[in-house]
Structure formats: C-alpha cells, structure tokens
C-alpha cells in the first residue's frame, strides 16, 4: 500500500497552503495561534472567504457548492487548515446539518437552507443531548407533538454549543413516546427566535461561555421543518455522527501544537539551559510524534480503502479515540511549558474581550485550552461508546 502523496496531491496541497497563506486574515490566525477563542464575526469572515473560493463545503454535491474532491484531497485540506491555524469550518453548519440536508432533505429545504448555511447567513447549533440523555442519546425525552401543520415542542436540551449565538437549531425530538426509543425520534429544524425558547449559559471549566441549556415551552415548529420521515430521526443522526467522526483525528492540529511547543521550548530556561535541550522533554515529544505518525498512517489507510466519505465507517471510532487522546496530551505539553504563567486563568484574554495577557500571550491561554480539551474524548460520542462500536463493528464481539 502506497501511503505517499502523488505529484497531483502534492500540487493540491501547495495550492491549499498558498490560499491559507494569502487568504487567512492575520488577526484571526494570530488569535488562534495564541489559543484564544475567536468571536462569531471571525467565523463568518472566514466562512465567506472559503465560500468565495468555492471551498467552504467540499463534501456537498457540486450542485450545492461541493468541490468534488477525493477523500485524500479532503484529508489534505482539513490537515492543512489545522496546520495554518485557520478556523475550522463550522461543523454544525457544514458537516452536520448541511450533509444531512443534502442526503435526506427535500429540494425545497435544500434551496431554502443550504446557500445560507454555506454563507453563514444561518448560524446553526446542535440540539441533541439532554439531562439524562448524553451517551445514551436515544433516551431523550423532549417531546414534539404533531398538531397537523406544526409540532409543539416541550422539554430541555443541554451542553448546546453556540446556542446563544445561533439563528437555528437542528435537533432530535421524540415524536412517538410509545415506540421503541430509537424508533420514536424525528429530526427538526427550529428557528431560535421562536417564542417559548429560553437559552441559559453554562460556564465551562475553561471559564468560557461556549455551552448552554435550551428550554422549550410550547414552541411551534412548522411540519415543513422536519427533515425526512417522522420517527426516522435516529437513522439520520447515525449518518450525521458518522460524518462528524470521519475526520476527527485532527492529526494536523496535534502536529501544529507540537511544532509550537518545540519553538517555544527554545526560549524557556530551566536549570540554566533551554528546555528544548532537556533530555526528558525531548523524549516526551518524540514519543508523541511516534504516536502521531501511527495515527496518521492509520488515517491514510482508512482513506486508501476508498470508502465513501458519506457512509459511516467504524474505523472512524478508532481515529476518534486515539486522536482525542493525542489532542489532550498536546495541550498538556503546552501547559507544562507555560508553567506559572498559565495561572491565574485569564478568561477575558482567552475570549478576546478586554485586558492584556499576564506574561506571554500563548501562556495565558494554556490552562483554559487544556481544561476544555478534557471534553474532546466526550464530544461526538464518548470514547467508551467508541470502544463498544469497535468491539461490535470491527471485532465482531
């Protein structure tokens, strides 16, 4: 099996790098290199730059703005985006609701939503988790009663990323309380300005406001906002989460953090010598790089099998598990480098609000980035759930 890039793929990679070098606003890149949480306006700016280039939704069909790239081109694009410290395309918009609408939406829904989703005219959040329905998502209880021309929604969602910034939510709601739990769920699109919706902030361990509780009190949702058939939302969610995990290893992100750690270590003096010359530190980085190379090769092997990128591949669970672990380890390395400069937690600087960093800019965000990375082994299905998927779908246990 040849895991090297072809001449055409190298030329494509160079084109992507050149675009990121010239097209990515320096202000946005600088914020991400520092580890700051970028504001919504930065996401919109970058999305629209990618949309103008025709690269914002590469997995979509060409009819709706897709690129027709191969799986390896999509992999290169994603990894180079991490390497360049560019914002990821908003997964809720492109990978999640966009792909689901492309696969299961009506033509009218595609015309209504997809152009605005791509251009960030509609900012989407995901309404899945509920109190008591996290890893066991099929246990969700928020009801959507069919009233003929609309649904009446009552209940609560939790851990909703970006709900306070969003125009729309895509979510799963129970439409048949008597059916087997996976069979009584529907996929709805909800206008977040609808009467009866209340959004309350959840301040996470990093001190930032990313997450929210969302309450529904007799919220009317037009029936035409249902994607696909009633009570088949679980099938659509499995498709959606397969896409969410397809490129979740984020090798490029972990590589960028290691490169950053190497550069910074040259200026960190410990016991009278640069930390970059410390044997224990060098051995730790070498061990991480070996693990990253193994993960990268596993990722490339999955792509080399030429599986359809729109079809759920159980191998993505392996990539998700190991990728999330390495993302956590690389934030730990940067936290160790920051030392006491990482504290106190500087939330305003981290969230691009007011105030300057105490000490080095990169050190000010090391602690909150480390804290928030604790969640990556939970997002898109906990690693414990992924182990179950691997056991059943790959090992046949």
Please characterize this protein's 3D structure.
This protein is 47% helix and 14% strand. The chain is an alpha+beta fold. The protein has three domains: 7-89, no CATH class; 124-236, Butyryl-CoA Dehydrogenase, subunit A, domain 2 (Beta Barrel), CATH 2.40.110.10; 248-394, Butyryl-CoA Dehydrogenase, subunit A, domain 3 (Up-down Bundle), CATH 1.20.140.10. It has a four-stranded mixed sheet. A four-stranded antiparallel sheet has the order 2-3-7-6, with no helix packed on it. Strands 9-10 form a two-stranded antiparallel ribbon. Strand 2 (143-146) and strand 3 (150-157) form a beta hairpin. It starts with 6 loop residues before the first helix and ends with a helix. The mean pLDDT is 90.
List keywords for this structure.
globular; 3 domains; 10 strands; 397 residues; Butyryl-CoA Dehydrogenase, subunit A, domain 3; single chain
Class by SSE composition? alpha+beta
Number of domains in the coordinates? 3
- Provide the CATH topology of the largest domain: Butyryl-CoA Dehydrogenase, subunit A, domain 3
Q: In the CATH hierarchy, what is the class of the largest domain? A: Mainly Alpha
Secondary structure tally: strands: 10
Give the C-alpha Rg.
Answer: 22 Å
List the helices and strands in order: HHHHHHEEEEEEEEHHEEHHHHHH
What is the end-to-end distance? 28 Å
Number of DSSP helices?
Answer: 14
Q: Estimate the strand proportion.
A: 5-15%
**Average pLDDT level:** 90
How does the major sheet shape up?
A: 4 strands, mixed
CATH architecture of the largest domain: Up-down Bundle
CATH homologous superfamily name of the largest domain? Butyryl-CoA Dehydrogenase, subunit A, domain 3
Side-by-side strand order of the widest sheet: 1-4-5-8
**Regions with pLDDT < 50 over 5+ consecutive residues?**
none
The percentage helix is 40-55%
Shape label = globular
């Amino acid at each position: 099996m040849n895991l090297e890039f072809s001449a055409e793929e190298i030329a494509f990679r160079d084109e992507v790098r050149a675009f990121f070098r010239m097209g990515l606003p320096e202000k946005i890149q600088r914020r991400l290199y520092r580890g700051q949480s970028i504001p919504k306006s930065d996401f919109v700016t970058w999305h629209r730059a990618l949309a103008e280039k025709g690269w914002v939704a590469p997995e979509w069909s060409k009819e709706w703005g897709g690129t027709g790239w191969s799986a390896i081109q999509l992999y290169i694009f994603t990894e180079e985006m991490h390497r360049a410290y560019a914002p990821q395309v908003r997964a809720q918009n492109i990978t999640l609701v966009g792909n689901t609408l492309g696969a299961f939406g009506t033509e009218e829904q595609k015309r209504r939503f997809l152009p605005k989703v791509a251009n960030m005219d509609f900012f989407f959040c995901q309404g899945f988790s509920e109190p008591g329905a996290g890893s066991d998502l099929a246990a969700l209880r928020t009801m959507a009663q069919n009233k003929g021309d609309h649904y009446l929604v009552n209940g609560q969602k939790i851990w909703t990323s970006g709900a306070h910034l969003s125009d729309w939510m895509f979510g799963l709601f129970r439409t048949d309380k008597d059916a087997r739990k996976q069979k009584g769920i529907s996929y709805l699109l909800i206008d977040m300005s609808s009467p009866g919706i209340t959004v309350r902030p959840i301040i996470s361990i990093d001190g930032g406001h990313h997450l929210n509780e969302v309450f529904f009190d007799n919220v009317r949702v037009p029936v035409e906002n249902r994607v696909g058939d009633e009570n088949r939302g679980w099938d659509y969610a499995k498709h959606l989460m397969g896409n969410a995990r397809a490129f979740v290893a984020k090798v490029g992100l972990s590589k960028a953090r290691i490169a950053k750690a190497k550069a910074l270590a040259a200026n960190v003096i410990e016991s009278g010598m640069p930390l970059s010359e410390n044997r224990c530190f060098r051995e730790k980085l070498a061990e991480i790089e070996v693990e990253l190379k193994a993960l990268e090769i596993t990722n490339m092997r999955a792509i080399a099998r030429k599986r359809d990128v729109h079809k759920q591949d159980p191998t993505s669970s392996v990539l998700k598990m190991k990728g999330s672990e390495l993302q956590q380890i690389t934030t730990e390395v940067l936290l160790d480098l920051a030392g006491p400069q990482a504290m106190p937690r500087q939330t305003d600087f981290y969230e691009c609000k007011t105030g300057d960093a105490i000490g080095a800019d990169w050190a000010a965000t090391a602690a909150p980035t480390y804290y928030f990375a604790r969640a990556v082994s939970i997002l898109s299905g906990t690693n414990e759930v992924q182990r179950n998927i691997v056991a059943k779908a790959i090992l046949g246990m």
